[in-house]
Amino acid sequence: MTEPPPADTRPWYADVTGYQWLVLAIASAGWVFDAFEGQLFNMTRSQMLPDLLNAAAKSDLVTQWGEWLLSVFLVGGTLGGIVFGSLADRFGRKPIMALTILFYSVFSGLTYFATELWQVAALRFFVALGVGGEWAVAAALVSEVFPARARAQASSVFHATSIFGTWFAWAVTSWVEKDWRTAFLVGVVPALLVLWVRSGVEEPQRWLQAGEQHKRMGSIAELLGDWRWARSALLGMLLATVGLGMFWAVTVAGQDLTRHLLVSHGMDAAEAEQHAKFAYGFVQAAGAGLGLLCFGPMAARWGRKPAFAIMHIGAMLIVPATCYLPQTYHQLLAILPLYGFFTLGIHAGYAVYFPELFPAHLRATGAGWCFNGGRLLAAGFLGISGWVKSMPGMDLPRAISLLSMLFALGLVVLVFLPETKGRPLPE
After folding, report:
1. DSSP 239-302
2. Which CATH number fits domain 18-208+217-415: 1.20.1250.20, 3.40.50.280, 1.25.40.20, 3.40.30.10?
């Protein structure tokens, strides 16, 4: 009987070439600023909305506009992921990645000149088009360029770099303080990445070969018309819906929980706001970044589905613990990294897993459909979150704890999805 070949015990990066590292760096830089543009609004809305509405910061009008603008962003991200993903499968990864970066950087910078909220809404929609599209293209590019044994870890590193975008947004908004316009003007900086993309990226051989075979490149009709791909597209979208919906309902609530604790202990609201921004934008984000990095090794060792299951179960456990165990600000700072680790670490799995579900001629289209289609359905979690938090007698810790139970929906979806560990990319 033939002996099986010995297991490869070398580090995952042993065979990674200089060009593959370059692709990871470029894709990650685009995703860093992608996250930065998304977080800018979260960290400036408490200054922007009262300013443009000429209303009190805690007024119902400010709250309503804040939720509506988030919904506009989710819709734009969904459309951008699907449209630009399809275009990337048709015309190539390089030109569409450059276009998406220009979209989110230029329209973010134009927010500096906004004087009405309808202008902010329109600009945030166009920013979201670029944000959603860039992820779809970059995730497909990384999965196609890296060798199979390094794919999960590289994709995990790619997605984890979004934390630098959160830190950058925190640093910029802390620097400008209440001058939200200058923060958005900084958003033009990523446009410089286009030069790097144009000079450093080559089209993957997998995509070129698919084109030579005259396949229906980027066809949404084929994606949804062929049950092999439609099943993965629909189930993947539901899986992303849970993680992305819980991001808005639970993950970002780390900032609210911090503010709630500090104000309940008698701290001034303005000072509590600054402490909460640090707790969320730096401390919790550090744990989230570690969670994103760890997903790749977990997926490579145990499989994609077990890694997702661990993250979902961990999130259901850590959220109530974070809501009720800390009694002081420093105790909360100690547990928030774990809160970020599990509630956000799930997201790296989307970059690892979704490109592995689709063939080269539909890879960016399918990945964009899953991740950004999940953004649109996640808007429903905003409604659920608002309803739970407004229930009579409901305080914030209890509401966040109850919402965290929705992570269980992800475990149900996982039952019906395939395991891709050890399998070649579909062609």
Report:
1. HHHHHHHHIIIIITHHHHHHHHHHHHTT--HHHHHHHHHHIIIIIIHHHHHHHHHHHHHHHHHH
2. 1.20.1250.20
Residue 220 and residue 313: Cα distance in Å, rounded?
A: 33
The 10s digit of each residue's pLDDT in 203-253 is: 888 888 877 775 678 788 999 999 999 999 999 999 999 999 999 889 988
Question: What Cα–Cα distance (Å) separates residue 370 from each residue in 20, 36, 82, 233, 353?
Answer: 25, 22, 9, 6, 10
Phi-psi category of residue 15: left, alpha or beta, with phi > 0 → left and psi -120 to 50 → alpha: alpha
Q: Are 84 and 99 in contact (CB under 8 A)?
A: yes
Tokens found for residue 283: 């401390």
Q: Global pTM?
A: 0.86
Q: At what angle do helices 162-176 and 148-160 cross, to 10 degrees?
A: 10
CA pair distance 161, 154, nearest whole angstrom = 11
